[in-house]
Amino acid sequence: MEGTEQTNPCAICLGGMAAGGGQATFTAECSHTFHFSCISASVAHGNLVCPLCNAQWRDLPFVRPTPVAPPPPAHILQPRTHPVEPVIVFDDDEQVEPASGATDSRAPSPGGASSNGALVVKTHTEYSAVARDSSSENFAVLVHVKAPGIADAGAASNVQPRAPLDLVTVLDVSGSMSGHKLALLKQAMRFVIVNLGPADRLSVVSFSSEARRVTRLARMTDAGKASCVSAVESLAARGGTNIAEGLRTAAKVLDERRHRNAVSSVVLLSDGQDTYTMVRRRNGEANYEALVPPSFLRTGGEWSAPIHTFGFGNDHDAAAMHVIAEATGGTFSFIENEAVIQDAFAQCIGGLLSVVVQEARIDATCVHPGVRIISVKSGRYESRVDEDGRAATVRVGELYADEERRFLMFLAVPRTDATGGDTALVKVVCSYRVAATGGDVSVTAEDAVVARPEEVGDAERSTEVERERVRVEAAEDIAAARAAAERGAYQEAVQILENRQRAVAQSGDGDAVIVALGAELREMRGRVSSQQNYAQSGRAYMLAGMSAHVQQRANSRQMMQAQVRPVFGDSDGSMTMTFGAVRAAVQDEATLSYATPAMRAMLLRSREASAEQGRQQQLLMLQQQQQLQLQQQQHPKAGEDTQSSEPDVKKIRKT
Predict the structure, then answer these.
(1) For the chain, which end, N or C, has fewer CB atoms within 10 Å of the first or last residue's CB respectively?
(2) What are the start-end ranges of the H helices in 531-579?
(3) 376 pairs with which residues across the strands?
(4) Do the Cβ atoms of 288 and 320 come closer than 8 Å?
(5) pLDDT (tens digit per residue) in 418-467
């Protein structure tokens, strides 16, 4: 752990090691702490044991040597130079558990997430039949992918494997986070730490005017959890907001680690705007990608760790947080109600702890020689259609357990002279890597086929295709309404959303997904109706909605706290807590936000933990009230005793 309060001096130089002392510290495996410069010099002289307890060290501090320039010619006058600070390398991450044959040592996810079969790929055609003498230039085929499910939570055991996680949390501790905000953040981080398994690793990075790595990337064993909780509790709010420096520190943690778990991710939380990074404008818009370190940007076909961003309160830079998430494949969440920060974190890690598919890729190939792929609606997922239209690909990436993706492909279907029979449209293959084992898998769907009768009556559209078309069109109109609001055309934005809401209502027929989408559009209308509403919460709410729809992944938007209250005075005099309202709220939010069962389970766990904490606080308040009443009852009695003794005193004085 680096930068935390230390009461003991460095055993080598006997200097103090309080936070803010200007020197980096190194905590050895034996838990003794030294100045980094002191212990590095000691190791450089061949001392490979702890100076205090003589414990043999496996992980040694390392200082990257500074390259030495050749001496200049003697006749050239050199300017006076300052000593160069040593470059600290974050290669002290704790070793991961062995990957092979170690399934019994991997912790199951809180929801019991483990691979339960293979990924499922299906295709749905817009219509089941097209007349032989008819052609279509815009025939829709839906490709539906669903990741393997999770094992039943009650049957989960420690022998069920899941992919372990390397998580870096980048936390804003600027001055605006002081007080209640920081207390809520610490509570949320305690929940995250408690719910990580012993194979998962966590590093905490904090930032204000500068950034620092608070803890190294360490396994969440009991000792590791205790160390992280202590480090989080030591966080203090002060200074400005330097988001870019916080992300650069997180990049160093991941880039310089010696070991790697199967899954890596970053969680960024901020309540303000970066005031230290010059963000240049490009085409009239700020280039917020300047805040993202290059190693996080998805370029050249490589997969990078996603950054899931959380805008805390109404004063954060929603546009910046949205771009950071979008550029790295993460999601942007808007925590308008600061009290639900723990729920927002819980839903996120519920997904991260249930990753079952990695590097998923969909390949579609036309079967009939006359069929061509015109376009693919893939949201933010990278897609490509070959020049001849005979093939297309979609890069999907990671999938949580039970998570689904839907992509619409639009085809050109030609006439046919064949009598009867079918026209095979496309063959779809999904290849991916199993996160827990690293094995490669390829799954082929049944060919998308359309019947070719001589005549076709009033054919019904596929419900699956129509539902996805409605969702895609709604997502496109949300983006259009947001663009209108950005240029100050608030009534135009309202009109776009109102028209789309009307179209959604006409197509729904009571479908739960359509009903939820209509409610979301209605909510957005109110948030873009004026400059004040849009600036206060509309921009953040709409960007969070866009993030969820283009990624088809759950995030947090105006997550309402469940109406859970402790019930006192039961018939037996005890106190109970009901969680039915919590479960109902979780199910409702899941319908709105693409949440998977594992994410809902972790969200429910967070709600129940908060309810239990509230119950404990109520108990404490009740005990304090009882003690106060007891003291008040005892105080008058003491006064009465004093008064009753006064006559006796007077008698004694008269005598």
Answers:
(1) C
(2) 531-533, 539-551
(3) 409
(4) yes
(5) 776 899 999 999 999 999 999 999 999 999 999 999 888 887 889 999 99
Q: Take residue 550 and report the two structure tokens written for it.
A: 């283009």
Collapsed DSSP state (helix, strand, coil) of residue 252: helix
Residues 6+ apart with CB under 8 A from 7: none
CB distance 34 to 10 below 8 Å: yes
The CB density around residue 45, as the number of other CB atoms within 10 Å, is 7
Measured in whole angstroms, how far is the alpha carbon of residue 221 from the centre of its chain? 22
- Phi, psi of 472, rounded to the nearest 5 degrees: -65, -45
> Alpha-carbon distance 148 to 116, whole Å?
5
Measured CA to CA, the distance from residue 210 to residue 290 in angstroms comes to 17
Whole-model pTM: value is 0.79
pLDDT in tens, 166-196: 999 999 999 999 999 999 999 999 999 999 9
Q: Which spans in 4-117 are helix H?
A: 36-44
DSSP H or E run through 478: helix 463-486
The two tokens of residue 531 are 């400059």
Q: Which of 509, 517, 506 is nearest to 478 (CA)?
A: 517
Q: What is the dihedral of CA 431, 121, 549, 479, to 10 degrees?
A: 80
Sign of the torsion angle spanned by Cα atoms 221, 222, 223, 229: positive
For residue 220, pLDDT over 90 is answered with yes
Q: Pick 633 or 560 by higher pLDDT.
A: 633
